[in-house]
Protein 1
Amino acid sequence: MDFNYTQEQQMLQDSIEKFLDKNYSFQARREIIAAREGMSQTVWEGFASLGLLGLPVPPEYEGFGGGAVDMMIVMEALGRHLVVEPYLSTVVLGANAIVLGGTESQRRILLPSIVNGSMKLAFAHGEPRSRYSLERVETTARLEGEFWVINGQKSIVLHAAVSDLLIVSARTSGEVGDSHGISLFFVNPSEPGVAGRDYPTYDGMRAVEVEFTDVHVNTDSLIGVLDQAYPLIELIVDRGIAALCAEAVGCMGALNAATLEYLKTRQQFGVPIGRFQALQHRMVDMLIHYEQAKSMACLAAVKVDSSDAGERRRAVSAAKELIGRAGRYIGQQAIQLHGGMGMTDELNVGHYFKRLTAIDTTFGDSDHHLTRFAEVTEATAEAMPAPPKSKWKQLV
Amino acid sequence: MDLNYTPEEQAFREEVRAFVRSNLPPDIARKVLEHKRLTKEDHVRWQKILYQQGWIAPGWPIEYGGTGWNAVQTHIFDEECAESGAPPVIPFGVKMVGPVIIAFGSPWQKQHYLPRILSSEDWWCQGYSEPGAGSDLASLKTRAERRGEHYIVNGQKTWNTLGQHADMIFCLVRTSSSGKKQDGISFLLIDMRSPGMTVRPIITLEGEHEVNEVWFENVEVPAQNLVGDEGRGWTYAKFLLSHERSGIAGVSRSKRELRFLKHIAAHEQKDGRPLLQDPRFMDKISRLEIDLMALEITDLRVASAEREGRAPGPEASILKIKGTEIQQGLTELMMEAVGPYALPFLPESWGDHWLGERVGPEYAAPLAARYFNGRKVTIYGGSNEIQRNIIAQHILGL
């Protein structure tokens, strides 16, 4: 057991912090959000030159070959700076999908383009009626000769408007709600039949409601095994969740720092308001939430690559549940302690709060993961140490 | 970063497990697991077994009888002990006064007291709180006046835990009333059999005798029982607090209690099904379990930062706050789990050899008392509000 970063990880953290400090001020972020694309090509190229776009990509495809802890370091920094670039969709979800599920030729063709920044991806899985269930796929793909024909609608597809390729889940057999019978496809958004409305989300990102009407894709657009994409989707989403947890920790750390600074500088009744015990104790509780969240982000990062799927699910859901709660507490209290200033658009506090709120509803909120955690825990109960021996069964 | 146990750590766990399994007396383990009352003899018997093995004081320097374990090994040891139902080592000697004597005591004090702490020959208790000095401990009034080779002690201590069993008490006493109130405090070691001492039980809300008032009336204490320098007792007390940390979060015991809670919930019925399948109750258990998972990592993170040489610090307050909240959550849910069968109040059934008739499931009998008694954990050792003050001041700089 070891909680330290390696020297390389330390360097990774330093270089990304330095880059963002220089290129991603709060004002710069504002301008990026205001631009039509909702992202910055310059920043994206900077990410490429830092090696961030190839983080989970193995070296044989020109990537960095990093692990989940490296990803945690990067995502925490992105959270601290409230980065709105399509990193989650392209790298965490997109590149991982190809690394984990792609054929050798898909990897050879696509991964180097992701690494060098020339290709962006979006993960089109959620649907208007699926809420957080990963197996509720209504979009269909049926084989017609040489083509798969896709019909359906995908909701809130993050960064789809700037992406060069969509990763789309569709039902190739079975009923809605079956985990078997789901497949993943690459779809070029410029194909005839792909349409969508691009809109902003409250946390400064952009998303699209994507409609597929008789969209024809080649049979080699299939990712992974036909009908058996569900475990792959679940794994990709779990990696996404681990990354979001780290991003949330970055947001929470920044919010706590800003709030603490405010308590020390804002004067009322002739003293800094941080002198008041009611506010001190609130700030302490924010700190405790942060430390617990940080612990869970570490746990999720370390366990998301576990070969034991039960252990992975348990850790990831526990982390997402706790971080949802912690993010809500810290976000709400940061605004409260900033008073009227916390309500303004001008201050970054509200923007962190909005991002934390969005993270809670991405890939399942606290309630969803509390349920998943309980199910996994019950299912793996036999594997856990037996409860203490006792005689009360006879005695009752 | 790697949160998995190394093969060496796994091997260490096996070693500890094998030892505890074959040496922990089953009658003691049963009492612990079933929340029965433990006697002084039960505690001493187990502590002597650990002493024989050389494992009684993991936190001490090796030359004084410590084990030289790192934070992860200590965590594994705690976990294995807790899981098997070993009683926690009574902290007042090994975890509290021992480290103070090691750091500040005279050669005579070290030679005389430390071996007796390790062997459980002396049972220690603590004389800190007073009727007028709780959270504001430095305002304590128990006086110690130097007369020749003795101190004469007069005053009253309260919330003294298990002093009815004790041979020795370590006390904070006032040796001077001038200057800052913290500066007039000294750290004295007092024999509980000294003439002029009276121990009076305080019965707590669950009906048990766990704490006492201790009265001092012209008690003569040899001057050689002063630890360190006169007037420096507050410094030693603060040192003690920062070394009382190993296990302060109570993670291992809480993990065991969580399993017990699930065990109860699996046997209790609600609408013809196990309570464990009730989504509303399961949510409460799961939330607590997740908090505990996080606390375990937080605990290890703090311990590992300490190992890196960063001074033991106010982070312990975070562990204390979260750990005690979880402990209370567990006692609350256990009581809730048995529903109305928490109500029968039969303290005589919590001890040894009870042959009388039970009411309800056996596991239900002590649960209400444990819930009531458990309210203490957010009060003792510096109330959780005081812990928040410490964090605000020393971590946040407010």
Note: Residues 128 and 172 of chain B are 6 Å apart (CA to CA).
Protein 2
Amino acid sequence: MGNYIGKSVKRREDARFLKGAGKYTDDIKLPKMTQAAFARSPYAHAKIVSIDTSGAEKAEGVVAVYTANDACGQYGVPCGWQVNFKNGETMREPVHPLLAKDKIRHLGEAVAVIIAESLELARDAAELVEVEYEELPAVTDPKKAMAQGAPIVHDEWPDNAAFDWCIGNDRAEVEAALEAAHHVTELEFNNQRLAPNAIEPRSYIADYDVNGDKWTLYSSTQNPHLIRLLLCAFVLGIPEHKVRVVSYDVGGGFGSKIYHYTEEALLTWASREIGRPVKWTADRSEAFLTDAHGRDHAVKSKMGFDKEGKIVAHLTDEYCALGAYLSTFAPAIPTYLHGTLFQGVYATPLIHLNVTAPFTHTVPVDAYRGAGRPEATYLLERMLSKAAMEMNMDQAEIRFKNFIPPFDGIEQPGYQTQVALQYDSGNYEGTLKRGLEMLGYEDFRKEQQAARKNGKLLGVGISTYIEGCGIAPSAVVGALGARAGLYEVGHVRVQPTGKISVFTGTHSHGQGHETVFAQFVADKLGIDMDDVEIVHGDTEQVAFGMGTYGFRSLSVGGTAIIKSID
Amino acid sequence: MNVTLKVNGESFTHEIEPRMSLSQYLREVLDLTGTHIGCDTSGCGACTVTVDGDAVKSCTILAVQADGCEITTIEGMANGTQMHPIQAAFKEHHGLQCGFCTPGMVMTAADILKNNSNPTEKEIRDGLKGNFCRCTGYHNIVKSIQHAAEHIKG
């Protein structure tokens, strides 16, 4: 054990945050910087009949107004994950335009960008953009989107399906086991769509350097290198070496700042057009309307049990909405990050999950806090809790009955789940036993009964959780449909004075990398933590990286740093 | 319109648009970017400053309304490199993660402790009702303010 790992070390980044000296994107001001505002649709689904920007163009302080009729209209932002239909048909992938051209497909979709000398003038002018819409019926419910006669999101795919997918055992086998089960618990519910709402709204500054023919994009992103890759190679066709993406301090992400957003590409394009830097910071309404949402699963589930309360089979059908366009990781969330958790910590012998993923008239739906995995756990635990009540069993007992027996991965091999993953080791009953001991479970139940007699309600909830963390390595995610490797870069440079600079492709937006990474680097090298600097959030300083999400910073990024030291 | 006010002990006079919020004035005119704008509608509290000693959400008053007032922002809390006891307590008790809500939390804490040097946990939580932390670190924020109160009392 070194001097730092396992010790309570105070965070090194806190001083600047506490003094108001953090450097969030909206805090940055550049010479000659302009401000952007957007004209956005008040409808979820509408035909754009006409757009008149003449009033906005003439307004005070306006530098430029662009619509999809300008050159930016030919570009769209890509999706980074491909999940094909069960029958082999390729995933349907609509163009996600930087500005809507003929049709609006979600509330808040942008039709024009207005660039002016100040934020106030840009917003004033945005109000002068006149758009004639023909409102159309919209569908936002994932199940209704797949019903006959539902409003169509993309005309080329009248059934609204982006893909369908399944995982686990043969459906017929699972159905037969349910048929023969002693007891079947059924549950139908919606895991509702939500807006992520990081406290710092998304913010970007695109700065084109006309002399160097280069750009700097300041972005409140969780993964600057991926943004550069998508922006350059897939949207604007700019060689990557000409774009530097800088992401200094970021005020929380929770997934919503992983993705490449239309505004990033549009501002980058516009900055060259006007030859000046341009900033846009979402207001809170725009954050609700345009940050990728999370969840939105309509779930129908059946779990069969034998007489003892052991699970014999689990069958779930879900409709998982993707919104109007495919966001960067969207197809992976209700599939590989969801279905692979259906084993949970239980020895369920037969599992089948079927997912239908429709387009809907909402903002794109992508990863949010845990992303697909909490949805799976919520379902499993709801099912077990309901089954225990129906079968008059204790909530702990039904879980003990169904736990995968302890396996250490050495004496006993890893546990092969029915849903692709192999667990390396686990002792689930030991963990729950310890938790119940800490609570004094049996006494608590007695106390609860006594309290209820006196008209007082006391409760205890039991939930287990296992999660696939640290998304990597590249070969595995590639096989599952990722269109980029999920490797990570850790580069440790010994400066001439013996001080250490560590360059990591992961990104801290509240996680405390500047402290944690320095802790183990200092211990590995046997030096003082103050002699270790952590550099992140700058594509020019850090060779490459895939950012921070899915609990990968320490497990993937940290491992890369350690390998670099070794 | 002209506005004259004192911010962190320094006097300023500026000709500004009447519609400019105090938060915009602090950030854009004075470059005091420690005051953050999270919602611009007085919901989140990230922009909290003190105006004549009282905590105010600076996104919801106009700069011209603060004419003649004394303002303290997060930048005015530390004494050089010496952090204010509230700031020191937040660092000691891990009262922040991403740091974006933090200036508002510290300024609100100052208001809570100004009016009540020995607040209960409930009083602290009540006092923080107008401040959001989306990293969900409320527990440690409350703990930080409790410790700051003890420290200030000495």
Note: Residues 2-75 of chain B form a domain with the Ubiquitin-like (UB roll) fold (CATH 3.10.20.30).
